[in-house]
Specification:
The protein is 32% helix and 30% strand. A seven-stranded antiparallel sheet has the order 4-3-2-1-7-6-5, with helices on one face. The protein is built from four helices and seven strands. By secondary structure, it is of the alpha+beta class. It has two domains: 27 residues; 102 residues, Pleckstrin-homology domain (PH domain)/Phosphotyrosine-binding domain (PTB) (PH-domain like). The longest helix has 28 residues.
Length: 151
């Protein structure tokens, strides 16, 4: 009888953990603006260290959440103000085994440190548009530096 009780408790714990994961994902993704996004969390081995997750655009930030985590807070936050794409490349070597075939890796520089992110090729265009766009109500630095004739 003790074995059956132990097995039952184990099943309940697993079901509860799965429920919490789904509730967390529902809370994070409820407002839209979600993209599939992998972030390189470790560079110790070539082609390794990628962690799958999803990114959420919120104001001037791209918030990255790990796919398999119980945390409600984002694991990493990238601010649009200090973020610039340094280089774009296709997955190489071991990276091709851990990512879908149509993904692109972007090496970005930020205020804190360089970061590598990977996303679908179709998502890169939207990400670059978000990165270059001025926040609502603000004037783009590119437009502010030009002298526009009065209307």
């Amino acid at each position: 009888m003790e074995i059956v009780e132990g097995f039952g408790i184990g099943v309940v714990v697993i079901l509860l953990a799965l429920f919490v994961l789904f509730v967390r994902r529902a809370l994070v993704t409820r407002s839209g603006g979600i993209i599939r996004l992998s972030v390189r969390v470790s560079t110790m081995l070539d082609g390794r260290g990628w962690s799958p997750g999803f990114g959420r655009f919120a104001d001037d930030e791209l918030r990255w959440y790990r796919m398999f985590s119980f945390a409600i807070r984002p694991k990493r936050v990238l601010s649009r103000k200090g973020l610039a794409v340094e280089r774009r490349r296709l997955p190489e070597g071991q990276e091709r085994l851990s990512m879908p075939a149509d993904w692109v890796i972007l090496r970005c520089t930020s205020h804190h440190a360089p970061v590598e992110i990977a996303m679908a090729r179709s998502t890169v265009t939207g990400f670059l548009s978000w990165l270059e766009a001025a926040p609502p109500g603000a004037v783009s630095p590119r437009l502010a530096s030009q002298d526009w004739p009065a209307a």
